[in-house]
Amino acid sequence: MKRWGSILAWVVVSLLCGLAVAVIALHRGESINAMWLVVAALCSYALGYRFYSKFLATRVLAWDTLRATPAERLDNGRDFVPTNKWVVFGHHFAAIAGPGPLVGPVLAAQFGYLPGTLWILAGAVFGGCVQDFVILFFSVRRDGKSLTEIARDEVGRLGGVVAYLAVISIIVLILGVTALIVVNALKSSPWGTFTIAMTIPIALLMGVYLRVLRPGKVLEGSLLGFVMVLLAIWGGQWVAESPTLARYFTLGAPALAILIIIYGFAASALPVWLLLAPRDYLSTFVKLGTIAVLALGIIALRPTLHMPALTRFVDGTGPVLAGKIFPFAFITIACGAVSGFHSLIASGTTPKLIRRETETRMVGYGGMAAESFVAVMAMIAACVLQPGVYFAISSPAGVVGSAPATAAATISAWGFPVSAAGMASLAQEVGERTLFNRTGGAPAFAVGMAHIFAHSLGSRFLMAIWYHFAIMFEALFILSILDAGTRVGRFMFQEALGHVWRPLGRTSWYPSVLFNSGLIVGAWGYFLWQGVRDPLGGINSLWPLFGTANQLLATVALCVATTILMKMGRARYSPVTLVPLGWLVAVTFTASWQKIFDPNPRIGFLAHARQLAAVPVRAPETARLIFNDRLDAAVTAALVVLVLLIVLQSGLEWLRVLSGRKLARVHEAPFVPTRFVTDEAL
Amino acid sequence: MKKLHQVGAIVLAMLREIFDEAPYRRFLQRTGKPCSRASYREFLRQKLNVKPRPRCC
Fold this sequence. Notes:
heterodimer, A: 682 residues, mainly alpha, Amino acid/polyamine transporter I, two-stranded antiparallel ribbon, 27 helices, 2 strands, 71% helix, B: 57 residues, 3 helices, 70% helix
């Protein structure tokens, strides 16, 4: 009877999923309710988790319920600790969920809600969740080794080197692009700048509180920090209204970029307890709370999506990001569908905490499904805005013009009515001077989120507070990535340069700390500066570059996973990783080719450089812009060549293994029986 | 009510792990030191002077 009940329940979930996807995909010309997206997402994840991840676990990976994990075998109470699966799930989710799943879908909303939503759902269920799950599982089988170590052992030395270079490149690009998002969100916004500036002394106070006043009481300290951040948001409006104070906090993009670069260097070189650790705690606290509240807000308000299913910009003429729906929608949304960066976390701290092999399914597959749901919420937040408002906020001045009347006329001519007066009124409502040309995705998301919060709580009175709360939330997210990422990058540089000159590899030698911090900050700071000086807003060039790098890292992870499956004698199941791998290769290689060689100057780096070079009377900045275009083309080409090498090396390895010319030997840790065995396992 | 209590306990345990309170408690158990400024400083030195946890985009 119970079995029939379960079958019936899953039939209902499947039908509901089909209905919701059909409504999303087939509705044209009328607005639909956001709940259809929520239902489609939840049902897709439930079906994927219940059936596909179980198939992966039992047939493809053949997990062993009797096998001890490294957390059990190497338990040292420090790095390796057998931990409750829900606790590991939360820990893993807090590490993988960043601003990417919030910003990517907002940018991709220019194509309409349909392409991005379908990619988020299908990409996560068949790609991202699979990648996270298998890499976590393989890392657990290999004493919690990192992706670069696994690549070196299983694919070969080249695999390790390519993975290392891909990781460092993606870190540099992530930091540059995310810093640019903060700059674009805070420029000419005294309220936002004041609030974010205040988070630095708040983090310092928290650091002192945790170290001196109440050692180790992190939850308590984070709660206090959160209250202080709320006060800073409240206080921001007084600063914005005060002519004297507002002057100090009204900064242009170059000034903000310089301040963020200085901040990144300080965060990398200062003792971690003082700034990095408290800020990390504070941002995690805000992140987990806000995501939960946003989900509740969407369910409470059940908003209508005003963005059409497909816009005219699927043809590649989009103002937010230039390029056709294929491949650009698929690299614009990386986190939320497939994110290579997750493979670093799935082969980092998480495998050292897993108590039983069977728990990798919930943490790896389930954790990514949860992040994908965050991306769906971001898509909803962008699409509840009137399309004209969305394009007015997200389009750069270089495309729509900087004068409000000109921008409004251009956007209205595209078929998305908006007026300068309406935008001025909205800007006033959220406490900003203007909302035109606020590229980067963060301001559009913040307006959408403020709309949901303000309406679900029944009052538009708090729109300004909610808007600045959303900006603070995203900026805090991003700055904590800048802190941790700059430090991770510094350690990676030290690891590499230590081979050149041993003292440079010493992580506690201060000259080495300063030198390597300067290197990593200089690298991402260059991309940030390039974005700030770009007349098209920077996001148009840099976000696709970042998305490509992230998806190329996923390509590396899936190559490694496929190689291991072949060596495990499970070649017939290899399509589970080969199909997403093939798709990502098609997407990233096409996107890279177009970003380098497309004749449209808004898409191709080299075409843009040629266009600039053809102008007879050049501005002093032009030479720099031409150099930047060529540099971006070279970075893209270098990444593609590296990944092509690992794809080829993996392919050769598969041929050798399948033809029997090479003995298929995996580098797993030896079997040791677990003491956590249960009746279910027996 | 019992179920709710269990869920609350799991959420609290999750937060304690994420916010490093549980690792600090394990550190005190492992080293046999009392909770103090000096031991928390030692814990942070051990934990945070190694390669930090990456945070995803």
